[in-house]
Design a protein that fits this description.
heterodimer, A: 0% strand, B: 234 residues, mainly beta, 16 strands
């Protein structure tokens, strides 16, 4: 991918614009999280209009209750659509790499598809579409962040070979597997959230007071009898309890894997390598994410806490994805004498021109 | 034979089943301590919603009297289908008042009209979420002072959910039966299923949180009392 029409020139304003698009996309994921956390996804029954108004002329005085979250989500989504369109055109006109043109086109169609999916989720009354909407949002965020990375000076220099150095195949594979596991985790989370069943398990670190909760019909009936929620969710079912347990187990596995990634990066790349720093940032995110997951339960799924959990989850995924892109962008040659590497510096013996 | 002399015979034949119909009555109770209800605090943050409240309203899943009388239990004849006279029945009414659904638990027949009112000075969206095949989900806007909305459901379904997504604490549960033989227990836990034809039946008592239980009864020509064991949180 990086060998097509290589360029040594950077376009700092294009890079900044891509970063801005990525940042607003990140905010959009947060606002989407608030919509679901507040159970407001269906508070505006029509689409693309809002209560019969053109979306952009809907009076602010009517932005009340759940409408506020859903309507502002739509407006911010429109902003992301506009930014993505400009980014696509900009890439097409100014980026010399042909594959970047098509990456921009993919982003454009991605944001359009995502908008339509969000609209259909409302007009077709399909909660299940919300799972796809949430999952595709994560992939779109990765795509925009990747575009930002590819337009950065860092990537251009990496691609030019001046700052290339070895990353072992094993480490790259480990990070890739971990990143994929985080994506699976986010799909599990989206499935949990879009079933609108509230907290399937109300305590942590135990689950209904046990290491592994009973899920037989009598036990589940007892759980439901005790569940008192202001936002009266549907009764919890055994599958939802098992799903949350899976979420916890996968979270533990992710923590172990990311810790392993950070440790291996440090051992193999050295403490000053950008990928090692990124791996430790990733590990810090996972720490925060586990804390937010626990807080989500202890706060009885407070909307702001739950949404922060969603946002840090998205950051964790994109961090792994960017690590993979950089890692796979580096050389795959085995250099057994490799010991130390600079942050962005060049170790002559390892420089390889692509 | 004169037609006038046939009239008493025809009348007797028509009225015969009615004469034998009886009521199924009883009281449902709750044993133990019910889980504590929660304050619906978001309602007080909304100027329109909070106007009628002097203190924060609470959830009301467990309406239990001093002697354990349990309200909002839906009592019905299980597996009695195809007997609905809902199309001819008076409409049931669900109101939105103080940003809460009133009543929170209601039962209707298939084909019976359910009229949803908005007595509030704010917009609600009326979002029904049926799960039975043949019942259709809808999501309708109801402005303050707007026209009543009318819903009917073709298939029986227990605890069909109505909600407002603008005010996510607003819920009502509508049980739909394919017969007229059902009722909801009142605040004294009392229930009456009227005019049940003679026969053997399974009577089901279903509570939104506590699940359901059944009793077998035989209706002859006088009222039958059904004694359900007290509901409890297991």
């Amino acid at each position: 991918m990086t060998n097509n029409a290589p360029t040594n020139k950077t376009n700092p304003w294009l890079f900044r614009f891509a970063v801005l698009t990525a940042f607003v996309t990140f905010l959009l994921i947060g606002l989407g999280g608030l919509v679901t956390s507040h159970g407001a996804g269906m508070s505006v029954p029509d689409w693309p209009n809002t209560y019969g108004y053109n979306m952009f002329t809907f009076p602010i005085s009517k932005w009340v209750g759940g409408i506020f979250y859903e309507h502002t989500h739509r407006l911010l989504a429109s902003a992301v659509g506009l930014l993505t369109t400009v980014l696509t055109v900009w890439l097409w006109l100014k980026d010399p790499r042909k594959w970047m043109h098509w990456l921009g086109v993919a982003a454009f169609f991605g944001v359009v598809a995502q908008g339509i999916l969000g609209g259909l989720r409302v007009t077709l009354h399909m909660d299940s579409l919300g799972v796809f909407h949430a999952s595709i949002a994560q992939l779109f965020f990765i795509l925009i962040c990747a575009i930002a990375l590819f337009t950065s000076r860092f990537w251009i220099e990496l691609n030019a070979g001046s700052k290339n150095y070895f990353v072992s195949r094993g480490l790259r594979t480990l990070v890739l597997v971990t990143t994929l596991m985080i994506f699976v985790q986010l799909i599990i989370a989206a499935t949990m959230r879009h079933q609108h069943a509230g907290l399937a398990i109300p305590d942590f670190p135990l689950a209904y007071g046990k290491v592994w909760p009973a899920t037989n019909p009598d036990a589940v009936a007892g759980y439901n009898a005790r569940r008192i929620s202001v936002t009266e969710e549907a009764p919890v079912i055994a599958f939802q309890i098992q799903l949350q347990m899976a979420h916890r187990v996968v979270a533990l596995a992710i923590f172990i894997l990311v810790a392993a990634c950070a440790w291996l990066s440090w051992r193999r790349l050295g403490g000053k390598d950008s990928l090692t720093k990124l791996a430790f940032f990733w590990l810090a995110l996972i720490f925060v994410q586990i804390g937010l997951g626990a807080w989500t339960i202890w706060s009885n799924k407070a909307a702001d806490v739950t949404t922060l959990h969603v946002m840090v989850g998205a950051l964790s995924l994109v961090t792994g994805a960017l690590w993979c892109l950089i890692g796979f962008g580096r050389l795959t040659l085995s250099l057994p004498d490799a010991k130390t590497f600079g942050v962005f510096g060049v170790q002559t013996s390892m420089m390889v021109n692509k | 034979m004169k037609i006038s002399s046939l009239f008493p015979l025809v009348a007797a034949l028509v009225l015969l089943p009615v004469a034998h119909a009886a009521d199924i009555v009883g009281i449902v109770t709750f044993k133990g301590t019910s889980p504590a209800e929660k304050e619906i605090s978001p309602i007080m943050d909304d100027a329109n919603c909070s106007a009628g409240y002097s203190k924060t309203p609470t959830t009301h899943f467990y309406i239990v009297g001093p002697k354990g009388e349990l309200a909002d239990v839906v009592i019905s004849l299980k597996d009695v289908t195809g007997k609905s006279i809902g199309a001819a029945a008076s409409p049931a009414v669900l109101d939105q008042k103080g940003c809460l659904y009133t009543p929170g638990i209601i039962a209707i027949q298939t084909g019976q009209k359910l009229v949803v009112k908005n007595s509030d000075n704010c917009v609600h969206n009326v979002h029904d979420k049926p799960t039975a095949d043949g019942n259709h989900e809808s999501n309708d806007v109801q402005m303050p002072g707007g026209a009543d909305l009318t819903y009917t459901f073709a298939k029986p379904e227990p605890f069909l959910k109505f909600q407002c997504d603008v005010h996510p604490w607003m819920f009502a549960w509508v049980s739909v039966f394919d017969s007229p033989y059902f009722c909801v227990s009142d605040k004294d836990g009392k229930f009456v299923i009227k005019n049940v034809p003679p026969g053997k039946y399974t009577v089901e008592a279903a509570h939104r949180k506590l699940g359901s239980q059944t009793q077998e009864v035989e209706v002859k020509d006088s009222d039958v009392t059904v004694n359900f064991p007290a509901f409890e949180v297991k």
